[in-house]
Task: inverse folding
């Protein structure tokens, strides 16, 4: 797949839609994220790769404050926070409405139907009426091609189907940015493909996406920018061509070579 | 200030008076527990037998002994059997009754212990050529015991509380003393608060023991 | 043998009335004890120390004090506090308090069994903590807890036999009365035992069945 075949997505907008500055995260004595800064622009698809324990998920989860940095500033959409103090419930809720997250373990609610999984958050978080919520749910189920599973329970669905529902659930709240935490790591390669297909479409439709993944091929194909993390820092970033095909640092070279060898 | 001090002092007095019942409460509990721990062994072996007769007999025993309230069993032994066949002292009846009930519960605890042992252990013993009895005695039983200890300790605590029923057939334990005190005092919460405190205090060392054993077990078993 | 059976038939109506009282006590105690137990379970799981510690103390006392002590405490204690109620109400209250303490631990275990990932998903969606509790955690927590709660109900039913000490005319009390009048203690007590079994054993089967059904639903 050539670079010029990728549709132009990332706009040259001045203001980044997500901006992390000087983010520092510690667990006791362990310094998980070391003074990291990152800007993501509207419509960009950013892939975060790197060895396990590098801090990729931790950094991603700092964006919707599932991890608590001890210092730094966070800006998502119109909301800006300095993280030297604890954020109020209200601030956290506003932040999380602007972001949608998809987890490795899907985390669907097993005691609710697929429909209810998608509609309930709309009604409780955005205050939509049941009619509005149901309409959005139906539209999204169509989009992920699972309209016939609306009344099923998650336990009856395959992993790939569950993850697509999880994506629909997050999309239903109209987030400005979608965060993916290793979305296909818990799936068989076959099932992973259906999920990656949905993610590719989402990207082509212009959604801003930050994806922590081990799927280097997907990153190469879909991402506008690839970020390599190791030991709590960003060690390299650039276009897929730059980073994946011509990594600068020996560390990164070693990482990609190991992955290519395994395939 | 005196409104708080006087009741507290009263509770203190009740507490000291109730301590006289502690040795009996403990004696009955420990004896019943020992009876149950020992009787539970043949019971669990029967329960796990490959033959349906001992297995069914054991199941029936366990279900029936646990399905009837302890106080009813004590009454059956003390008043029922006691008035027609053999006479028991209240303490004997209490130990016998609670002991038989404990056997039922402990047999189930032992059974859980057996189920928790990796099947490989039995396979290894068979492969080594150990007889069933030797395998039971040297390989399985020690492990079953170790795994069951926390549950046994927890059961001991509940047994301590359950043996308060012995007071209903005349055993002079803490419970009987407390009822006498309450009737003498014409009511009030004091004696019972003191009694509750005594039982809670008695359970603390056992609970601590259970937690320590549980932690030690996790160390040994976790891979 | 014939005489035994004929006596049993004579005594059955009386004992049946007593059994009804035992069942009523159990029902009332669970009815009032469970909501209180859920409240205590939530309080003991809370992060706020001023909610957590009082609840922990109440639960430990409720579980640490023998049921007989609680029963007699309520029975002898309430009048001295100026509250005069029937023995039945005293008994139900005492059993409800005990039920609350024990069920709170069962419910807490159920609530903790809900995968944390779902709570994270709810958080990421922007749901309030209250909503996550209400729609995600409590419904599943209670479902996980149902078999253990049913098992506890059986134990509670057996505990009602202790209420004869506070003059409630339940099954054991009536059996003893017949025994005292006829001196046929063994005969009548065995019948009473059989009546207890007639409730506990089938209910025990129901618990096992429920465990199996719920297990498959939530997997």
Result:
């Amino acid at each position: 797949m050539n670079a010029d075949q990728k549709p132009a997505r990332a706009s040259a907008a001045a203001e980044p839609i997500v901006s992390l500055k000087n983010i520092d995260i510690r667990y006791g004595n362990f310094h998980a994220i070391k003074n990291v800064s990152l800007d993501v622009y509207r419509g960009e698809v950013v892939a975060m790769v790197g060895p396990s324990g590098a801090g990729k998920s931790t950094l991603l989860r700092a964006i919707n404050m599932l991890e608590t940095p001890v210092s730094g500033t966070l800006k998502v959409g119109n909301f800006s926070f300095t993280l030297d103090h604890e954020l109020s419930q209200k601030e956290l809720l506003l932040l999380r409405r602007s972001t949608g997250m998809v987890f490795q373990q899907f985390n669907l609610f097993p005691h609710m139907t697929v429909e209810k999984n998608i509609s309930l958050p709309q009604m409780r978080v955005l205050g939509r009426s049941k009619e509005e919520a149901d309409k959005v749910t139906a539209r999204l189920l169509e989009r992920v091609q699972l309209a016939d599973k609306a009344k099923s329970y998650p336990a009856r669905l395959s992993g790939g189907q569950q993850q697509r529902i999880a994506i629909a659930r997050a999309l239903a709240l109209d987030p400005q940015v979608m965060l993916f935490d290793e979305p296909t790591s818990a799936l068989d390669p076959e099932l992973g493909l259906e999920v990656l297909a949905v993610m590719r479409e989402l990207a082509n439709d212009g959604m801003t996406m930050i994806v922590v993944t081990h799927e280097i091929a997907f990153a190469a194909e879909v991402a506008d920018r690839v970020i390599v993390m190791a030991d709590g820092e960003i060690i390299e970033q650039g276009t897929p061509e730059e980073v994946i095909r011509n990594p600068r640092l020996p560390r990164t070279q070693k990482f990609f070579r190991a992955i290519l060898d395994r395939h | 200030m005196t409104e708080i001090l006087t009741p507290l002092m009263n509770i203190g007095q009740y507490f000291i008076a109730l301590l006289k019942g502690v040795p009996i409460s403990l004696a009955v509990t420990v004896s019943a527990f020992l009876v149950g721990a020992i009787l539970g062994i043949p019971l669990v072996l029967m329960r796990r037998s490959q033959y349906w007769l001992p297995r069914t007999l054991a199941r029936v025993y366990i279900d029936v002994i646990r399905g009837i309230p302890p106080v009813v069993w004590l009454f059956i032994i003390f008043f029922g059997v006691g008035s027609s066949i053999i006479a028991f002292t209240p303490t004997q009846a209490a130990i016998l009754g609670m002991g038989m009930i404990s056997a039922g519960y402990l047999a189930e605890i032992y059974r859980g212990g057996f189920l928790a042992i990796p099947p490989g252990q039995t396979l290894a013993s068979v492969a080594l050529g150990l007889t069933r009895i030797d395998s039971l005695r040297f390989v399985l039983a020690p492990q079953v015991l170790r795994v069951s200890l926390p549950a046994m300790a927890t059961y001991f605590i509940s047994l301590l509380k359950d043996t308060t029923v012995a007071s209903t057939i005349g055993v002079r334990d803490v419970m009987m003393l407390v009822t006498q005190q309450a009737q003498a005092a014409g009511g009030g919460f004091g004696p019972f608060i003191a009694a509750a405190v005594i039982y809670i205090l008695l359970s603390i060392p056992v609970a601590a023991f259970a937690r320590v054993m549980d932690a030690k077990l996790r160390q040994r078993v976790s891979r | 043998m014939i005489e035994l059976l004929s006596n049993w038939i004579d005594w059955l109506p009386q004992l049946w009335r007593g059994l009804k009282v035992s069942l009523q006590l159990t029902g009332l105690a669970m009815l009032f004890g469970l909501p209180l137990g859920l409240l205590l379970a939530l309080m003991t799981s809370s992060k706020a120390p001023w909610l957590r510690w009082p609840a922990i103390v109440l639960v430990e006392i409720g579980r640490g004090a023998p049921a007989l002590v609680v029963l007699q405490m309520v029975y002898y204690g309430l009048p001295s506090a100026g509250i005069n109620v029937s023995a039945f109400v005293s008994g139900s209250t005492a059993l409800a308090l005990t039920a609350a303490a024990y069920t709170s631990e069962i419910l807490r275990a159920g609530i903790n069994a809900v995968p944390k990932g779902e709570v994270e998903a709810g958080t990421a969606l922007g749901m309030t903590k209250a909503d996550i509790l209400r729609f995600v955690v409590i419904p599943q927590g209670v479902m996980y807890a149902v078999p253990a709660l049913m098992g506890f109900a059986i134990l509670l039913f057996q505990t009602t036999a202790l209420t004869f000490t506070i003059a409630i005319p339940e099954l054991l009390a009536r059996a003893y009365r017949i025994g005292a009048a006829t001196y046929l203690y063994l005969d009548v007590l065995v019948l009473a035992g059989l009546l207890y079994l007639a409730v506990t054993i089938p209910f025990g089967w129901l618990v096992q069945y429920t465990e199996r059904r719920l297990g498959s639903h939530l997997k």
Summary: The helical segments of chain C are 2-45, 49-64, 67-80, 87-112, 116-124, 129-159, 171-182, 185-218. The two ends of chain C are 52 Å apart (CA to CA).
